[in-house]
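Lab meeting prep.
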Amino acid sequence: MKAKGTNLMKNEDADVGIGTLIIFIAMVLVAAVAAAVLIQTSGVLQQKAQQTGKEATAEVSSNLKIVSVVGNVTGGAIDKLDVLIEVSAGGNPIDTNTLRVKYINNNSANFLVNGTNLNYTEDRTVDSSNTVLSSGDLGKLTLTLPASSPLNVRETATIQIIPETGTMVIKDIATPATFAGKTQYQLFP
């Protein structure tokens, strides 16, 4: 007997379909990995941007403001300066122990040392700390000028106050033509 011939059709469409499915799954996996890398990178960049923003805000918002400068006259020259300071609006509290103060005149430039020729007191305080200048406080820096560099009549000088964070405050002062027998003379404003 002769076997009946079976006529099998060759259909290669299924092979092409499976190949297309494998390529599609591979593309989805590659896209998922790329998306994960992008999301992770954007997260890192966001954290860096937030940190930079906080630092920039601290730099700008912790400014000091000089309210007035009064010179104490002794022997015909100013030997001490009382500098009234406060935190600018919206500023952060400032630890006055970390302040750097530089006094510059025609003869020299000197950093004043806290406790030696620089003293800090508070004329008005809204908190219990005597060394932290907070919003609403009125602090007084007393600068004892070097004995070799008092401020005489018709002289100019510069005071630079450098906080730990924030911008440096520079104030130029000028003495009058005569002190007219006064023991204190307002140099700013």
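Slide two material, second protein:
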Amino acid sequence: MFRLFLCVALAVCSGCAKDHLQPPANLRYVSVDRSSVLLYVIKYQSDVDVLDLFGRGERQGMASGTLRCALADDHDFSVGKAIQFSAVGLVDSEKRENGSSEYSFSTSTFITETSSDRSSERDLSTTELNHLLANKQQIPCKVVVTAYGYKPYYSNTMNVPVADLLREINKPITTD
């Protein structure tokens, strides 16, 4: 009897995660810049404030807000899934221009290879990135927001032009 009760309770509670009730954000690519040897800053705009999905204030109630970009053919952005070759970083808010209906964001990303069991990551070299991106025109990216008690939130796909990314990858490294 106890096992039956436990199974019923688990089945009922497995659907307890609330929906965020926000439409998927439409992201618009703005630019990419290399800020250090391993860090690339992607700037973009959105028609939804992805850092305030719940109307409580920026980052309130969030567990994480990341931009994820798939560099190879694996385009499964699910929270529990590791993308083998990706650019990932936290979403940061930029100042909103007066009267603008869009929200501006930037994400400092590391470009890495992740093992399938997510136990290890390593940064990709310039040579590896050039080879990986050689025959691509664009790479897909999504904002993924997780919050306690809510289903994950996924934006619509934003495409980053590979030509822009390769320009930054191959830019000579300057030491100031």
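Talking points for slide two:
The chain has a mean pLDDT of 84.
The two ends are 71 Å apart (CA to CA).
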